[in-house]
Amino acid sequence: MEKLKSRILQDGKCFPGGILKVDSFINHQMDPNLMMEVAKEFGRLFADAPINKVVTIEASGIAPAILVGYIMQLPVVFIKKKEPKTMENMLTAAVHSFTKDRTYTVCISADYLTSNDHVLFIDDFLANGNASTGVIELCRKAGAQIEGMGFIIEKAFQQGGETLRQLGIRYEALATVESLDNCEIKLR
Ligand code: 5GP
User: Fold this and answer.
1) How far is the CA of 126 from the centre of ligand 1 (A)?
2) Which range of residues forms the domain containing residue 84?
3) Each residue of 141-161: pLDDT tens digit?
């Protein structure tokens, strides 16, 4: 997606350890016009998939996911990173956070992820694929089917893409970062 790529080159910032900061337009301050275009692009790319639910993980996935849900007219559910005391029928999975370098338990209510669900997972980044494998685990526990995964940005120098390809999961990324070496953003 050309508009996204030029915005990454213009406003993205490299951080040591292969981190791309896009918090001026995606995951802290957000550009709603760009986000809507991102959502429309996901809607176009997955128009042929038999999806009945959009799933994301808090916090940065929620903004694109709710817009994708609006565009595709589907319900949206987000996986929580803290286990609420009040959640009923909780499904859990362990996820290692790349940016925070810690492992935490993510959860979703089995009321909102069931064996009737055909899921499109949306997130801001695909890095090592830990969030994605956590989602795969939750869907397996719920008996839900993953029909596709959409990421705003994939970092191709980390192994998440390879993991998803090996698992046979269809995924799309709207911008692919080849390298952040020497703090220079190289896009595919
Ligand atoms: P993964 O689980 O694929 O290793 O990492 C994906 C998650 O980590 C995303 O939900 C995203 O929030 C965060 N993340 C991974 N790499 C980056 C990055 O370079 N920049 C930012 N801002 N977040 C990242």
Assistant:
1) 6
2) 2-187
3) 999 999 999 999 999 999 999
